[in-house]
Amino acid sequence: MKTNSLLVETRALSFGFGPRPVLHQLDLQVPAGSIYGFLGPNGAGKSTTLRLLLGLLPAPAGTVHLFGHELARHRLAALGQVGALIEMPSLYDHLSGLDNLEVTRRLRGLPAGRTADVLATVGLTADAHRPAREYSLGMRQRLGLALALLPDPELLILDEPTNGLDPNGIIEMRALLQTLQREHGKTILLSSHLISEIERVATHVGVLQQGRLAFQGSVAELQRRQQGHAQVVIDTDDAARCQLLLPVDLGGATVLGPGRLGVPYQSAEQMAYLAQQLVLAGQPVYALHCQQPTLEQAFLHLTEPAVA
Ligand SMILES: Nc1ncnc2c1ncn2[C@@H]1O[C@H](COP(=O)(O)OP(=O)(O)OP(=O)(O)O)[C@@H](O)[C@H]1O
């Protein structure tokens, strides 16, 4: 497979529940080998999109291609290499983790060795013989992932896989996703409403805002896009006083704390001029640096409701 090929590609994908539009003209592009973080606030339409990709909702407007196959016309070919975890996995609580997997493996006619393989992959070998009802939420999610991995799909589609997990469970899931991408060569499309969960694992990001793609690209591109929002942070004695002293053409200063002032970054010369002006006015400058917005700020900026 070409390294730059797209495993998921939608064109002008639009969808509504009844008369209510939910998704507008989405052009999603998930590159092979990526961990694509599909981000958006609650209700933005992430789950709806993922369901459409799996053919679980009535046919939408626009097209969905998976592995180059159009879903509406070649459903089996399109979905043949896709594993998914969309809601809480439906498990047989009275059966062990191993037997839960065995039921599905036999139904699908998969080789006997797959069960042990996927149990090892998701780190459940030691708990394989315990009934699923004794599993923690994190273990249930990992067992759900093991079920999705049984046929060894190339692409995993996961809807909020860390939802409801405790911090340990989140760390384990994050590590597992990275292992699946790096060591098993999987491409992973996962949704989340939390940038903090995505930023450590994702290589690519799509940001959905009220059913529209507000951004799509690599994580590095998202950060670059936000450089216009960098600010100069100045540590001084009396930030409120300094705010009044600074010439307005330096950009509106904001008081970040009693001794900390923020000014929208313009240039290196502006930074030098800021320091000079404060010192000339008799104010101490203990530190002055340019602060790039965090990915979290970038995400919040993209998902702020538009001001009418
Ligand atoms: N079966 C349905 N019938 C009618 N409206 C629905 C249905 N499912 C979802 N919606 C609506 O579609 C919109 C998008 O929902 P969706 O679940 O896709 O959002 P989301 O981004 O996944 O958010 P969340 O993280 O809260 O699940 C919401 O306004 C939701 O109320």
Descriptive overview:
This protein folds into 2 domains: 6-225, Rossmann fold, CATH 3.40.50; 231-291. It contains 11 helices and 15 strands. The protein starts with 5 loop residues before the first strand and ends in a 5-residue tail after the last helix. The relative contact order is 0.13. Helix 4 crosses helix 5. 33% of the residues lie in helices and 27% in strands. It is elongated and about 80 Å long. A 6-stranded mixed beta sheet has the order 7-8-9-4-10-11, sandwiched between helices. Strands 1, 2, 3, 5 and 6 form a 5-stranded antiparallel beta sheet that branches. The model has no long low-confidence stretch (mean pLDDT 90). With 308 residues, it is α/β, with parallel strands linked by helices. It binds adenosine-5'-triphosphate (ATP). GO terms for molecular function: ATP binding; ATP hydrolysis activity. This is ATP-binding cassette domain-containing protein. It holds the Pfam family ABC_tran. Belongs to the ABC transporter superfamily.
